[in-house]
Structure formats: structure tokens, C-alpha cells
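so my prof wants the structure for this chain in the C-alpha cells format not the other one, which i didnt know existed until like an hour ago. anyway here's the sequence
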Amino acid sequence: MFNENARLDPSQVEDRRGRGGGVMRGGGGLVVGGGGLGLVVLLLSLLLGVNPYGDATTGPVPGGPLENLANERVDPNPAQSSNLARECQVGAQANVREDCRIVGFVNSIQKYWTDEFARRGAQYQPAKTIFFSGATQSGCGLASSDVGPFYCPNEDAVFIDLGFFDELQTKFGARGGPFAQAYVLAHEYGHHIQDLEGTLERLGRDRAGPQSAAVRLELQADCYAGVWASNATQTGYLTTLTDADIAAGLDAAAAVGDDRIQKRLQGRVNPESWTHGSSQQRQYWFAAGYQTGDIGACDTFRGRV
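here's what i got, hopefully its the right format
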């Protein structure tokens, strides 16, 4: 999948795995959710796309972790792990190691958006991807593995416990595979693009329902993921994308549809509580981006989605 000679840039990823959670006060910003969730109790709050421990509108949930952390903080610039820099240098390593593969996907995604912004006469601002295990701190509050991958606009960073990719198969029924991982990452970086374009501000309080702003934001991020996929080989990191790769991305998109998750975890489907869109919607918009390769095809805020 990866060009074996492509030079990887592991500086775009910060590795916090194995460091534990620690504490942090003062985040509490909007968390934009990605694919799926690990716990039934978190289903509605996390599919809502906000931090279950509080957000910029409501503040910390009474009795929640952030409220109990008083004024303690952690070092905002933890020491970088040297493992990725040493072990993830070229595409050949991305073809055999999962963490190097994620580095390669991040590099490709950001290369595409850098070039696309330049083509439009704008400058792309990179976002870091942060690996963690168990729990870590973010500019949006305490991040737990139960939350799943998410984008924190306060920190311009994508947070992910790589164990989520196993859960994508075991808990959400996806087939998995490398390109399912790519879809998840590209979706989260889609939220970063929305942040740079000011689109996240459309969320407001319209956070649930099949035609809500929350759903439209998530579907647009799916479409942006498809746009990157359409142009991925042009970034120089990936050699080819097969029909099987795209099928894996579409399968992952379907697995984390609101209806599929609700049916799997609750045994029933309630469209009025949707926040990410149905499996069909998510597949449709990923495919729309992939088939056109054009972000102009990703206006999910016009008409019905």
C-alpha cells in the first residue's frame, strides 16, 4: 500500500502510549467525535460529538471528572517518545507496523490538505495526531479510550487510542483492515478542515436528529475523508488503492452509523437522537467525496442529507 521509499514524518504524531492519564483543568472545549464508542453509557453523549465531561456551553458535568480535578494541571509539552522517530522512517516500515502505518496515513492526509489549501490560495495549518493508551489530557478535557478517536479544536489535534481499531471490529462489527484505519483518521482530519474553515461554528445547539447540524458536520467529514482517498496516491505516500481498500472504508463508515450502533448497543433505533448519521448516509457521503475527489461535492448543509 505504501511507497516503500517514501520518507515518513513521525514529528506529526506524538506518542503518549503507556504514560497514564494524569489530570488537567481548563479544557472542557468541544470534542468532535469520530467513528464509534466503547460503552453503552456513553452512547448518546459521545455520539453527540461533545465531551461527556463538559463543554464550553454547559461546563463540566456535576460530579464528572473535570469538576473533581480542581486546579491541577499537567505539563502541556510532555517529552516526545523517540520510538516513532527511530522506527517509522520510510514507507516500508508503514507496510509492516501499525503505528508506522498510522504515521504514513497522517502524513498523506496532511500532504493532500496542504496542497489543496495552497491550490485555493490559502495556507493549511497542520494538526498533530496523539497516540495514547487508557487516558490522557487534551485541550478539551480528559480523554479516555472509551471515547474513541476525536478531534480537539482547542489543541488542533486528533486523539486516538490505537486499540480502537480492534474495537471497530469486535464491538462495531467492521471488517477492519488498513484502509478502515485510514478512513477513521481522514474523518477526524475532516473535522480539522472544518475547524480551519469555521464550519464547526455551525453546530450550536442543533446537536441531534437525522437532519441536524451535528449530523451534517459528521457527514461532511466523511465526505472530506473520501476526497482525500480519491487523491491519496498523488501525495506520494501510497502507491495504489484497490477496490477492496475502498470497500473497507465504506464498511467502516457503515459500522459506525448511528442506526447500526443504536441497534447493536440498545436493540432499537431512534433517529431523533442521531448525531453522526445513518450507515447509509455515512457511506453515501464518503462515496461522494471519493467519486468526485472534490471538496465542492461536500456541501452537506444544503438540502436533505
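also thought this was worth mentioning. The chain has ten helices and nine strands.
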